[in-house]
From TrEMBL:
Species: Sediminicola luteus
Keyword annotations from UniProtKB, A to Z: Amino-acid biosynthesis, Decarboxylase, Lyase, Lysine biosynthesis, Pyridoxal phosphate
Molecular-function annotations in GO: diaminopimelate decarboxylase activity
PANTHER family, per database record: DIAMINOPIMELATE DECARBOXYLASE, GROUP IV DECARBOXYLASE
Reaction(s) the record says it catalyses: meso-2,6-diaminopimelate + H(+) = L-lysine + CO2
Protein name, entry field: Diaminopimelate decarboxylase
Family: Belongs to the Orn/Lys/Arg decarboxylase class-II family. LysA subfamily.
Enzyme Commission designation: 4.1.1.20
Gene: lysA
Binding residues for pyridoxal 5'-phosphate: G218, Y356
NCBIfam families linked: lysA
Amino acid sequence: MKHSDLLDIAKTFGDPVYVYDSEKIISQFNRLTNAFKGVKHLQLNYAAKALSNISILRLMNSLGSGLDTVSIQEVKLGLLAGFKPESIIYTPNGVSLEEIEEVAALGARINIDNLSILEQFGSKHPNIPVCIRINPHVMAGGNSNISVGHIDSKFGISIHQIPHLLRIVDLTKMNINGIHMHTGSDILDIDVFLYASEILFDTAKNFKNLDFIDFGSGFKVPYKEGDIETNIEELGQKLTEKFNDFCKEYGKELTLAFEPGKFLVSEAGYFLAKVNVVKQTTSTVFASIDSGFNHLIRPMLYGATHTILNISNPNGRERYYSVVGYICETDTFASNRRINEISEGDILCFKNAGAYCYTMASNYNSRFRPAEVLWHNGKAVLIRERENFEDLIRNQVDAKDIFSTKKEKAAVK
Ligand SMILES: *Cc1c(COP(=O)(O)O)cnc(C)c1O
């Protein structure tokens, strides 16, 4: 997107504001599809938790994507956005049997990631096919919070528990229609991913009625200059070959599924916020923006690096800044970052603001969550209003009748 378009959006819709470029989402979707064009049945299920605005979900649906969900609320958002129940897959972790049953009743596909629930669900509903989430214990990804394949991970059924799993399937006579893994975010080493896929194929041989194998996601996208990203084309080529070989051996053309979140929406997003104060201290120059980790928590939560541009002064001299938020505790977006000279009132643009940004936003410090705008075919469309004071107090119950102020007490005396 052009800087002038972003500045116009900030002017029209106010700031802070999230902007999503549909063209980038579409091109990422097509890129992944093309990388696997050698697979007969490919199914991409967009991971809703990355960015769950219903207009984004509608866009994904229009592209032919399915939907990967982790809560019953995401399932319901998907249905609202027009997804057919059978194109929604539900991959929760540690949720109750009741919630899983409710989702099954809505018609979504179920993915189970522990033996306790598998046994209970299979005993009660042997006729509802389920997919099982395997933990191949292969470690992918940089940040320990987003690596989910390691031995201590709470995700998935360990490959070492396959004999127990098979016993449950056998005793309950349940039908396993899919095998799944999701080893975490930020896959850099394709060979590690392929190694995990071998484990999945080995596991799959134990089940006779499979329809699909789901390789999860975790594709790394570039966040800053010089960042390495997952080589999707190379992965496509190598995994396609392995997958097709497996299907031959298995005797059935299975569907190859992925659940990309970050890959589809991260780079499509821009977060725009105004600089309130430029503050010189003895050691640094702070640029304080009209936002905080209540709106974009990734730098504070994961140490994520988001490229920050001063789109109000793109040709200004570069200087070093610490960009900070207004939250009343440590709230740092970036330290010692070279940015074109910043003046108060300038609009800063955070890149890679599509995935895990708005969906992690909160009302901390009693601030409003920002608006969201979709840039589609050269037009800006508001897809979520900025919150207002009414929104902040909507569900609060004012227990004013149970308190009397000190003043009133004095008056009673
Ligand atoms: C979060 C999640 C994804 C998406 O991961 P990305 O790194 O954003 O692509 C996919 N599958 C499952 C089960 C997830 O929990």
